[in-house]
Amino acid sequence: MKVTFCITELDPGGAERALQQIVLVLQREGVEVTVVALSGPGVVGEELLQAGIPVTYLHSCCGWDVRVLWKLRNYFRHECPDIVQTFLFHANIAGRIAARWAGVPIVNSGIRVAEKRSPWYLRLDRWTEHLVDQHICVSQSVLDYSVSVGGLSRGKCTVIPNGVDFDRFANAAPISKSELGISEESNCLLFVGRLDPQKRPGLILEALRQEFLSPNVHAVFVGEGPLKEKLEGECKTLSLSDRVHFLGRREDVPQLMKMADVLVLTSLWEGMPNVVLEAMASGLPVVATEAEGIQELLAPPARGFLIENDSPEAVAKGIQKVLKEPHIFQPAAETAQNHTAEHLTWDSAAERYLRLYRDQIDSEANPLDSSVSGALGKVDS
Fold first, then answer.
1. DSSP characters for 80-99?
2. Displacement of CA 86 from its chain's centroid (Å)
3. Is 330 a residue whose pLDDT tops 70?
4. Which of 92, 264, 306, 340 has its CA 20 to 30 A from that of 318?
5. CATH of 2-163+346-380, one of 3.30.420.40, 1.10.10.10, 3.40.470.10, 3.40.50.2000
6. What pLDDT is stored for residue 241 in this prediction?
7. Counting Cβ atoms within 10 Å, is residue 219 exposed (0-12), middle (13-18) or buried (19+)?
8. What's 167-343's CATH class?
9. Cβ atoms 224, 194 nearer than 8 A
10. Glycosyltransferase subfamily 4-like N-terminal domain: which residues (predicted)?
11. What gap in Å lies between CA 263 and CA 231, rounded to an integer?
12. Which of 323, 331, 338 is nearest to 281 (CA)?
């Protein structure tokens, strides 16, 4: 079996890291895997190359560079994959068009988030859906959104959740709070992600200002993004600079999660956020908005705290509740950790991909058998 993964770019991000982990497990299972990115070189791509995965960059000059269709078609004709699996919107559209143009027998798209896109994007997805065999959604809520809002065919959609490198997070040793200039007696909330409007990190700063929240609560932000300078300015204006710590990109996120008292995520939308899975694997309690995928991860049974609304007061109350009631939320975090170990590793995610791919190849090779078994299945049900 030969599978080509097509993605928009290979800079560090949730979708890019997910692709990396799935590809590495599939390679270990004997699948011939190649990766093609519409953009230029990225960190994740270089890591894949070092792991022995062939990676090709098409150096697209912008999101809608039409020339990339010809480049992709030629690439697919040269590689002759059995399956093309696309990730992220631009690669989903360009990949399905070019793959069918090149005669690839099976084309799947990956839907990572329930993003509130423009009507034009939604129409483009619907207009080209006939080129897709299967949409792989990371959560049931993403699938439901893609059908109800995106207008995609429910029969073409399936759910394969993200995974996590469980041992890396579960077995990490904590760094000391003092290394970050925080007293060991203080509580520490952690944000990990891109500092952009989707993630709404400013809500956390506003939550810290709530009078009922202890001044001994510090916030640690890990990540970069367009809002960083604005957030740093707000910290000075709000006299929070001594309680808020911007660390930028870090390679020691597992150690930081072991140090923290609670992970906070205030996103407008998600799919199935890797950072929540990582916190669950770490045994770290989570306070989060009810964005897509998060509710499926945290409840029921209770495996974290879901914020009732998007106000700073509600965020602060969630943080306070987790910090004040460790007898409730630490066992909940342990339940989440056990659930992650059993059901949400990258091995289990890749196995679901592999099972789907084998079924698709079998159906392609034996279309009559597939249609007969499908009919029998309908009769039995």
1. --SEEEEESHHHHHHHHHHH
2. 14
3. yes
4. 340
5. 3.40.50.2000
6. 94
7. buried
8. alpha beta
9. yes
10. 12-168
11. 18
12. 338
